[in-house]
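Materials and Methods. Structural model of Sugar ABC transporter permease. The 325-residue sequence of Sugar ABC transporter permease from Trinickia terrae was retrieved and submitted for structure prediction as follows.
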Amino acid sequence: MALPHTVTYHRAQALPDGAAGSGASGALEPPRAKGARRRRASPDARRQRRAAFLFLAPACVMIGLYVIWPILSTIRISFYNWDGMTPPSFVGLDNYVELLHARAFYTALKNNLIWLLLFLLAPPMGLAVALYLNQAVRGIRFVKSLFFAPFVLSGVVVGLIFTWFYDPAFGLLKLFAGHGIPVLGDARYATFGIVFAALWPQTAYCMILYLTGLTTLNAEQLEAARMEGARGWALLWHVVLPQLRPTTFMAVVVTVIGALRSFDLISVMTGGGPFESSTVLAYYMYDQAIKYFRFGYSASIAVVLFGIMLVYIVYHLRRMLRNEQ
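The predicted structure was written out as tokens:
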């Protein structure tokens, strides 16, 4: 019977100072309890947690009031029939059923897909312009300002400029083609004409992102690649683009989100016409709420658009976290 007492004695000797008086029960205390006791006994850790909470609290309150609460309210309103004045009446999934049977919804969804595919041209075009402007030549600052100008223009101004450009009576297309082309008045060309106008400022935005990324390139890697004989496309593909991967990720994410939430140019240039041929989900949602006072139906469109964007954002966030890990 002496063996257990010997083991207990040695375990008690292995305890840190101040814990030997706790006896055998203190020697066999679980590590989790000791870790919890150590955390509770650390005033510095409590102060750090309190400071972090105080710094994050204003941002969390703002996000809750202006992001989370509107999202939840929109989802709730989508189950009601409401014109904004009379008391709302609960209709369940009727708004979503009507939405799935509306021809304008599928037209808007198809146009959003066209926006998405054509808008993805903005990052490579922005990269090409950034590579051209990233040169130490005389007068390059003036050229940069010309390419930077579309980024500082509002969407309304860009829409008006291209509306005049497309005008069949006195627009520039009449000078180039010899006759007027009613781009915005033709259901076949209206969406493509608006996307072409939207690519102008979006390319400028991607150009700014890539110009910033080019300033962070590792000069030693570039010099080593040149010494190995890398030139032109090989240098760009194997050395420059891998270092611009974070910039490319940001440019693609911003471009896709911009394509899904396109609204201002459509409102200025066509108003969703002709015959709702150029409408997108964001403008269709606005049209139903402001013109026809169908706030419940408009909320259901907003929920569908939010779901599409949420799938894309979650996918890219998971990919970004995986790359960081």
